[in-house]
Amino acid sequence: MNKKLLCIGALTLAIGACSSNKAPTSGSNDPYANSSNSAANSNSSGYDSGADANVTTSNNDGNNSGSENTLSSNSVYFDTNRYDVDVKYDAVVNYNSDYLANNPSAHVKVEGSTDDVGSVEYNLALGQRRADAVKKSLIAKGANSGQIEATSNGKLVEKFSNADEEGRAQNRRADVTYTKKAPVGYYLNSNGLPAIK
Questions:
Q1: Which of 59, 88, 89, 106 has its CA 20 to 30 Å from the CA of residue 35?
Q2: What is the pLDDT of residue 93?
Q3: Which helix (H) or strand (E) covers residue 167, if one does?
């Protein structure tokens, strides 16, 4: 009887740890984590390691400045075990939500991905949380929910090598991929990631 209670208690703690959406109390590798512009951080248990990969946006002059007409990446990147959409990706969210709102026949698939740390099941669930978070952000900014499909690749579709931290950071993302009526300049880059010129 005591073993059953102990197992139930351990399982309850494990499930609670996986579903937590609280900011970590220790230092993060994300340089924006302590910024006043940073959204509330979300955290789970100890999987999906490493630092945040940055999206870059550029204006028509090719200068990087922050709120622009052209995206060099149509992805949202995440830090370790996180699935909140940081405000530093507002350009990606705003561009896509505006386009979807103004083009009702356009459709996207938001694909959540992770690095290779942790089990397949854990990473599929984390990838789905990431895709759902981006979908929710797009809807909040004006896109119709019927235009957006949110799916998870977890760690099953590796676009970058997980052999080092840089590759793992690049694998922690959600890609906004157009499946119908893409904007002018939309393309898949050499790594198969969506981008908009």
A1: 59
A2: 97
A3: helix 165-171
Tokens representing residue 137 in the block: 């952000």
pLDDT tens digits, one per residue of 21-47 = 333 333 333 322 333 333 333 333 333
* Rounded Cα–Cα distance for residues 146 and 28 (Å): 35
pTM score, two decimals? 0.67
Give the pair of three-digit tokens for residue 27.
């230092």
pLDDT at 3: 52
Tokens coding 163 = 């052999």
Task: Indicate the CATH number of 47-196 among 3.30.70.260, 3.30.1330.60, 3.40.50.1820, 3.10.25.10.
Answer: 3.30.1330.60
Nearest-10 crossing angle of helices 120-140, 90-102: 60
Residues of the chain with pLDDT under 70: 1-71
Structure token pair of residue 182: 């893409």
Dihedral of the alpha carbons of 113, 143, 39, 48, in degrees to the nearest 10: -10
Place of tokens 């002018």: 184
- The torsion angle over the Cα atoms of residues 194, 61, 51 and 164, rounded to 10 degrees, is 70
Residue 105 DSSP code? T
* Residue in the block written with tokens 């507002």: 90
